[in-house]
Amino acid sequence: GRVRLSGQLPLIRTAMVSNRQSVDSIAVSLDLRLARQGEELESVAVFGVGVAHITACPCTQAYNQTLFRTEGDECPLPTHSQRSQTTLSMQSAGFAPSIPELLACLEEALHVTQDLLKRTDEAQLVYTSHSLPQFAEDAVREVARRAGERFGKVLPPETLVVIDSLSLESIHIHDVCCRLETTLAEIVRHL
Fold it and tell me: What is the pTM for the complete model shown?
């Protein structure tokens, strides 16, 4: 048999500058497969957590650097930014990572947005995302790196890791998606 559950989980966060509380939500999912092997019931579960975040385009920023010759400036150059959604899912036949552990990988790797941001919080988020710009594939690689560091010595090497990122492009008429489906062993090998 198979059971699939998905939804939004409310989460109270504290804004990075104003310290105001924001009620946000994260996407959560569970895909549970059950199979009978004789008298035994085997289960495999895939847990997923997704967050909204922003990315800033490194390509436009690099072009602006040559155009305006601003190498060494402390203020990051302008570029276009966009909302993105990234999900980290991990399959486990035994120990399963918790929602907070999966969320930590995402929050450490991405410029996560919040529902309630005062101007000072907005300015800090924009500054940070422009100081460390990311393509969709950069977001996926960074989440994979964080997952490898966090779970590489805890979960079995054959643990399936799936990372999906969708960038809702602001100046293009297309969106960009990136997907990585691999094992924890492969991620750890590249650390």
Answer: 0.90
> Which domain CATH number covers 137?
3.10.270.10
Sign of CA dihedral 179, 183, 187, 190: negative
Mean pLDDT of 110-128: 94
Q: Which of 76, 1, 8, 83 is nearest to 36 (CA)?
A: 1
**pLDDT per residue over 155-176, tens digit each?**
999 999 999 999 998 888 899 9
Is the distance from CB of 121 to CB of 16 less than 8 angstroms? yes
**Domain region containing 164:** 2-189
What DSSP letter does each residue of 56-121 carry, written as one string?
Answer: E-HHHHHHHHHHHT-TT-SSPPP--EEEEEEEEEEEESSS---HHHHHHHHHHHSEE--S---HHH
Name the residue with tokens 């495999």. Answer: 44
d(CA 139, CA 136): 5
Query: pLDDT for 15-64, tens place per residue?
Result: 999 999 999 999 999 998 888 888 888 888 899 999 999 999 998 888 88
Q: What are the tokens at 154?
A: 């805890």
Contact between 84 and 57 (Cβ < 8 Å): no
Contact 45, 35 (CB under 8 A): no
